[in-house]
Input
Amino acid sequence: NAGVTQTPKFQVLKTGQSMTLQCAQDMNHEYMSWYRQDPGMGLRLIHYSVGAGITDQGEVPNGYNVSRSTTEDFPLRLLSAAPSQTSVYFCASTLTTPSTDTQYFGPGTRLTVL
Amino acid sequence: KNEVEQSPQNLTAQEGEFITINCSYSVGISALHWLQQHPGGGIVSLFMLSSGKKKHGRLIATINIQEKHSSLHITASHPRDSAVYICAVRYGGGSNYKLTFGKGTLLTVNP
Output
């Protein structure tokens, strides 16, 4: 299994540009999520999905869109990039069982918005 | 506001020392997670706890539900344990797997 993959690893954008961060998992997990990590702050939830066709907002959703057309893929779209969106972005999928849940994180995408 | 507080923020130890990292939260939870973030950025799940204690190798995690507190212990610490350790809590039940994260504890173990 490749686990959770993210592309690109690094990206530089200019203010106002749009782009899509890709996330894919091959573990057939229903629950997936996007986080951003900023210096001095904990990981913060942007959007999440409980299965194909179902998405919902997290703590910091403004400026981002998501879709979930398949179980495997969960792309994150930046509509009009702003310097405040400079961050490291992590995608995660969650293995859920009746007694436990385990998060699997992608390697992250480091985004700089100029 | 539901908060997750970790202490200490930074911890430096000598190889072989016993390490304790603490996590406290403000309201009742359904589960608590400990994660490890390597210097290269990768994040790995270590434990999920809803009660009691779990052990994996040199790592031990405990939780006290009444006191709203969890600890992560590392016995016989080694330089390869150097990483950021992150506590995260899950407030909801059922199919709500949303997590709230602490800011992390940076552990440096010197040889």
User: Anything to note?
Assistant: The longest strand of chain A covers residues 87-96. Chain A has no helices and eleven strands. Residues 3 and 25 of chain A are 5 Å apart (CA to CA).
